[in-house]
Specification:
alpha+beta; globular; 6-stranded antiparallel sheet
């Protein structure tokens, strides 16, 4: 008879206590006087050592078993499963990159080799360095390419936020004229979703999953992954036309159709070459950002020993995460249009900590999100009341 164990038992390692008790039961079944053995004796010491080793072994076995299933594999095991079974590479974190403009109002002349010049974000303190040699003459205004020292979205900056010089340059000011954007590494749930989407990409008929998979998996001409985490695909068309809207965690996807060195161009190229079947036309476009301002009053327990400014940072971070994952077109309950719901914002703020008593927003009300629009964070005004 073959004994079939449920997956949850196969993937659950044994503790030292469980192994030790199992050994004692087996020895007792062999009529050995296990109850007469003294604590600290040789026999019990040997059993404790064996239990510790075997318990560690079951942890490895459980990990190996979980690694065989998409829903249970985690971390490096999921990375390997995705690559060798689904042919999907995990997207790693990228370093935020862009440009700063240096204005030399003094009389100094400055030269820096790559990596010698450092500037930083005025609010987050994230630092950036130059990627190439530059020379700044007296009275000159110069644009310098920079790259964050830390990978991930924490190093992203909106225009004007990188305005602090760490490297001493008397008489020089700096500022970034355009956004500087980095992305976080792909999470396990996001990688699992792309693995499932990749199955749709095997079809020659261009199903919705294929469009979604290639939009998220496209790479620019330099090999870097595009920063796309949300995709909307139009439904069946009697005239053979498909519209695909894409969005990044911050909202719009920058770039130009036809230029695959940009995110939007790379997505368009990937979809046209990998997905669109004969006789079908496809339009790829960036979703239009729909700012969702959040204002109101939050009551928190003073026992948390958290300042008002820190609470505001916590609330802003949670709102940012929620809106960065909201779907293009909003949340559709039964039929379009979709919405961002007031109660969802309340739950997001109140769910940040057990010390949050209540959040009473004045904005937003239930917000209608049109087709092709994507909810994004804007300036929030949350008044914190300590009680």
């Amino acid at each position: 008879m073959i004994l079939l164990l449920p997956i949850d038992q196969l993937t659950k390692p044994l503790t030292r206590k469980q192994v030790r008790e199992s050994i004692y039961r087996l020895l007792a079944a062999m009529n050995l006087p296990v109850t007469a053995w003294q604590d600290g004796g040789v026999a019990k010491a040997i059993i404790s050592v064996v239990a510790a080793i075997f318990a560690g072994f079951t942890e490895v076995i459980a990990l190996a078993i979980r690694a065989n299933f998409l829903d249970t594999a985690e971390g490096i095991w999921l990375t390997l499963l995705a690559y060798y079974v689904y042919g999907v590479q995990r997207i790693e974190a990228t370093f935020a990159s862009g440009e700063v403009q240096l204005v030399n109002a003094g009389g100094g002349i400055f030269e820096f080799e790559p990596g010698e010049f450092i500037c930083k974000h005025a609010v987050s303190g994230q630092q950036y360095t130059n990627v190439a040699f530059f020379r700044l003459e007296a009275g000159q205004t110069l644009t310098v390419a920079i790259r964050a020292l830390e990978a991930g979205s924490r190093s992203s900056a909106t225009p004007g936020q990188i305005n602090v010089l760490v490297t001493t340059m008397r008489g020089v000011t700096c500022s970034n004229p355009a956004p500087v954007v980095g992305r976080d590494g792909e999470t396990d749930p996001e990688l699992r979703e792309r693995c499932r989407d990749s199955l749709g990409a095997l079809s020659p008929n261009g199903p919705e999953a294929a469009y979604i998979y290639w939009a998220k998996s496209a790479r620019r001409a330099d090999g870097q992954p595009v920063n796309v985490n949300r995709v909307w695909v139009s439904k069946a068309s009697s005239v053979g036309h498909v519209t695909v809207y894409v969005a990044s965690p911050s909202g719009a996807v920058p770039g130009t159709i036809g230029d695959d060195s940009t995110d939007l161009g790379a997505v368009d190229k990937a979809i046209r070459s990998k997905v669109v079947p004969l006789g079908v036309t496809c339009t790829v476009a960036s979703a239009v950002p729909r700012p969702i301002p959040v204002t109101g009053t939050a009551w928190v327990q003073a026992a948390a020993n958290v300042s008002n400014d820190e609470w505001q940072d916590i609330f802003n971070a949670q709102i940012r995460i929620y809106l960065s994952e909201a779907p293009i077109g909003g949340y559709v309950l039964s039929s379009p249009p979709g919405h961002v719901f007031r109660n969802a914002i309340i739950g997001t703020v109140e769910g940040t900590s057990k010390f949050v008593i209540k959040f009473d927003p004045t904005l937003p009300e239930d917000t209608t999100i049109a087709e092709g629009e994507v909810p994004v964070e804007t300036t929030n005004t949350i008044v914190v009341q300590q009680v």
